[in-house]
Amino acid sequence: MKELRNREQEVFWFQRRVFVAAVFMLLCFALLLGRFIYLQLVKHEHFERLAEANRIDVQPEVPNRGIITDRNGIVLASNFSAYTLELNPQKIPNLDATIERLATLVDISQRDRRRFKRLYEEFRSAESLPLKSRLSDEEVARIAANRFQLPGVEIKARLFRQYPMGEVASHVIGYIGRISQREKERIEAQGLAAEYKGSDYIGKSGIELTYEKDLRGTAGAVEVEVDASRRVMRQLSRKASISGNNLQLSLDIRLQRLAEEAFTDRRGALVAIEPSTGDILAFVSKPGFDPNLFVDGIDPQSWEALRDSLDKPMLNRPLQGAYPPGSTYKPFMALMAQEFGIRTREQAIADPGFFRLGNGYWRDDKVGGHGMVNLPKSIAVSCNTYYYQLGAELDIDEWSGFMRQFGFGQKTGVDIDGELTGTLPTREWKAKRFPKDPKVHVGDQVSLGIGQGFNAFTPLQLAYATAVLANNGVAFRPHLVKRVQDAKSGDSQLTQPEPAYTIKLKPEHIQAVKEGLQGVVLEGTSASVFKGAKYTSGGKTGTAQAFNLRGQKYVESQVDERSRDHSWYITFAPLDKPQIAMAVFVENGGFGARAAAPIARKVLDAYFDQAALDANWKGFLAQKRDTKAEP
Amino acid sequence: MIQQLWNKLTDHIDPVLFALVTLITVLGLMVLYSAANEAMGRVVGQSQKVMVAVVVMFVLANLSPTFIARFAVPLYLIGIVLLLGVAIGGEVIKGARRWLKLPLIGNIQPSEIMKIAVPLILAWYFDKHEGAINWKNFLVAGLLVAIPFALIVRQPDLGTALLVGACGFYILYLAGLDWRIIVGGGLIAAISFAAAWEFNWLHDYQKERVMTVFNPSLDAQDAGWHTIQAAIAIGSGGLIGKGWLSGTQTHLEFLPEKHTDFIVAVYGEEFGLIGVLVLLVIYVLLIGRCMLIAMRAQTLFGRLIAGTFGLMFFTYTFVNIGMVTGMLPVVGVPLPFVSFGGTAMMTLFIAVGMLMSIATHRKLLAT
User: Which of A18, A43, A227 minimises the CB distance to B235?
Assistant: First the structure.
């Protein structure tokens, strides 16, 4: 009986303990339920966001950069897609070892290595830097097969910029390069970050820089679902990228190429403009450079060679070189004299071969003088005395005021960045520039009268002035881009459909000047060069004194050649209805008729003989193919 | 005839327990199918293991508790010998010595045997001393728990050790261990844990696991990654879930260990709070049934075993869900009847078999 009681007692105790345990367990389950309610109801939105962030990856879609063609549709800058071998420095502890390892798989040249080093130094925090581009299919396969041993090494399909004409028109087209830290900050400041998403490149110079906004297009975005190892499972949505606008240049690349060739190995500049539109037909700066070098980042050796060359191949001479115009200034002087009413066409001076004023004495080139010289003759024979005298008579501010209309010492507003203003002397300028000798002396004006002295104009300004003169004062802003074609709609628009302004000039005054310019070609300073030309033209030679070395390093063996005078030639043709106006500048070329005029002759000959121009162009293409096929 | 055979087969099957276990297992296979990215292979493999386990359950259910009690001592001794074997010549996997390679049988994890053997021997021991249990018996019982506990801790496998220790404690508790000792022991345990922490008796990875509970983002790539991704999976499931086979965390591989320890996160993501509520209710019913069997049991052995297994199911469920939801450290405890893995399934069905044996051999004993 006692045992049974004990037993009952025992079961009672046991059941009490089970009851306590059950309460405890229910409390625990309530705790779990509370946790689920917290996670799934209270914080549901938070976690849903996190889950979406986990699975959705937004990948930028890089737009096609606009294509650049010449006026006839010949491609000057385009894109091609290629595989590149890229390294992520953040994921690679020992870059050198990885590069060595890769070198056993694919050929990595010294140039590639140097270029990569340079990029790495500039973009240390980048997540992907190209080591080698344009991989062959076989190279891609070889790297892909070894990828598991190469963390941080990636093969990417990328769009590359290509400049098929190489050095030809390099200063016009310019080049693109990787976005620098400064440019990145600027892009962000301008709120353009979205448009550049995923893109590493930006225009650095020339058209590529000035028309960056048109060319770059707008980045798109692809929303994809990814798994935990960032593998793309499927596409969720896509906002297509918008290609950049295509540019049709006013340049005739055939003429450009021929003009560059005409310079042989001389340094200089040539600008040819269609006066009736402002189209720049040729824009030469010699020497040039190969813009393709810059596309994937230039290697230090090539860069130093370009930077340190005495020939300054990176200097855009027509845009950024300012030189005294020499005698090419005379036609404009003659026009001004008539407009100011201080000279007429017929009014003549007796040239004794020198000009004397007070204590001053200035010699003409021709000993004994040119005899009786009227206005057209003063241009044809380039009579200095005529213009010494004229210069001495003028008021400097009225003078510069007139010249300003032709763009002298002004930015022409051409559509590439970095244009130099040059110097068109005024009273104010003289006082500012020479505070110890602030007055403009008559002697200064005598020199200015023949285009020497303080005058400093760019070859582009000379060409522009010539075009305006040829077009009888109707000025079109000179431009390198003729049309911008919208990539989406295909509509294109002329960049400069209307004249910018018209200078009020009397037709007979212009006629007198043109007569003089024709005289230059027929019987004057460039007559021998233009003998037998099948077209009429007006021209003017010029010689600018290279009175200093302009900060160049003193190199004995070159000092002779580099201190010679610069050679100028301005021209337009045909005389009655000018289709082309041009300024040619040859650095240290000496007398204008010797260096610059023959180049002008070659270019004009080709311009008026399209068949010959085509033949020349085809010859160039064939030669390019051959050199390409060689290695 | 057929009726007779049916009766014979189902005589010792507790229908409520069987139904609840079947429900959870089928639910588990469904979730496993989703977790395996709709690959049938894993589900088939798991089903086969379940079949074998059910057969073992059936056999055990048909054995009387007295008969089962006879295995208590040998099983415990075998377990201890194997644990010693592990300590001497076990396979080292991921820095821990947990597995023993045996001829014919293959790789086994002796600590798993202890999950059954420890409750069994303690129940047998208390049953033997029924009616005259004093503090000495509790001391001996405590020792019987402490030995395998220490051996498993040394492997190191803190998770399993704590589970084995918990089972031992449940028996002591149900056998009537003095409340004062329970409270005092709890205090001592807390103090010794603090000491272990302070004097670096714990392995670094164990410490880390404890630490990440308090701040999962401490080490997002490693230990914390599990917890964070599980929380995202469950939380993003919301009230009604993303639907079966539609969990993004699961199917895009963000969720680690999704077949095994973290499977409840898959469930939470795809079935939402409503699904979770259903699952928790089934577990509560299952554990409640176990406790009912314990209360109705007619021997001390039966009461202790049934009550302990009920508490053991609870512990597994609570610790697993607690760790997946970020309330407890990640200790590697499977979700009962759901997580992928044959060993745990076998252990659980052995327990169910014994529970059924205790539930259905009542009348026999009464006569």
Answer: A43
Its domain, for residue A110, covers: 80-160
Query: What is the β-pairing status of strands A354-357 and A360-363?
Result: antiparallel
User: Do A214 and A96 share a domain, yes or no?
Assistant: no
Same domain, A200 and A264: no
Which positions 9-28 of A are in contact with B (Cβ < 8 Å)? 10-11, 13-15, 17-18, 21-22, 25-26, 28
**Quick one: DSSP state of residue A487?**
T
How far, in Å, CA of B294 to CA of B351, rounded? 13
pLDDT of residue A555: 47
Q: For A86-99, write each residue's pLDDT tens digit.
A: 888 887 888 888 88
Domain that holds residue B187: 2-366
Helix (H) or strand (E) holding A362: strand A360-363
The verdict on A535 and A468 lying in the same domain is yes
Helix, strand, coil share (%) of chain A residues, nearest 5: 40, 20, 35
Q: How would you list the strands of the sheet with A232-239, edge to edge?
A: A56-61, A220-226, A232-239
ipTM above 0.95, yes or no: no
- Cα–Cα distance measured from residue B196 to residue B205, given in angstroms and rounded to the nearest whole number: 14
Q: Beta strand pairing status for A280-286 and A349-351? A: unpaired
Which residues in chain B have their CB less than 8 angstroms from residue A30's CB?
none
Mean pLDDT, contiguous 10-residue spans, chain B (367 residues): 83 93 95 89 92 94 92 94 86 71 75 91 92 86 92 82 90 89 87 78 69 54 75 94 90 85 94 96 96 92 94 95 88 88 90 94 56
CA pair distance A607, B344, nearest whole angstrom: 92
Give how far B284 is from chain A: nearest CA, Å.
8
CA–CA separation, B241 vs B236, rounded Å? 8
The yes-or-no verdict on residue A116 having pLDDT over 50 is yes
Residue B349's Cβ-count burial label (10 Å; 0-12, 13-18, 19+) is buried
Residues A195 and A284 in one domain: no
CA distance A282 to A288: 14
* CA–CA distance, A629 with A626 (Å, rounded to integer): 5
Written as six digits, the tokens of A137 are: 């299919």
Q: Do you know the residue count of chain A?
A: 631
The pair of three-digit structure tokens given for residue A213, joined into one six-digit string: 């906004």
**Which of A459, A461, A458, A336 is closest to A387 using CA atoms?**
A336
Residue A327: active-site member: yes
- Provide the whole-model pTM: 0.72
In angstroms, what CA-CA distances link A270 with A257, A473, B161?
Answer: 11, 22, 90
Mean pLDDT over A513-523 rounds to: 93
pLDDT of residue A552: 47
A62, A199 contact by CB (below 8 A):
yes
Domain count, chain B: 1
Instruction: Show which residues on chain B lie within 8 Å of chain A, measured between beta carbons.
Output: 130-131, 170, 173-174, 176, 229, 231-239, 248-249, 252-254, 268, 272-273, 276-277, 280, 283-284, 287-288, 291, 294-295, 300, 303, 307, 311, 314, 318, 321-322, 325-327
Yes or no, beta carbons of A14 and B249 under 8 Å apart:
no
Partner residue opposite B254 with nearest CB, options A46, A228, A233: A228
Show residues of chain A in contact with B249, CB under 8 Å: 51, 54-55
**From the centroid of its chain, how far is CA A244?**
17
Whether A141 has a pLDDT exceeding 90, the answer reads no
Is the Cα dihedral A456, A460, A466, A471 positive or negative? Answer: negative
Taking the CA atoms of chain B, what radius of gyration do you get in angstroms? 21
| Cβ–Cβ under 8 Å, residues B157 and B87 | no
**Residue A629 contacts by C-beta under 8 Å, 6 or more apart in sequence?**
none
Contact B253 A233 (CB under 8 A): no
Q: In the listed set A249, A270, A298, which residue is the last one of a domain according to the structure?
A: A249
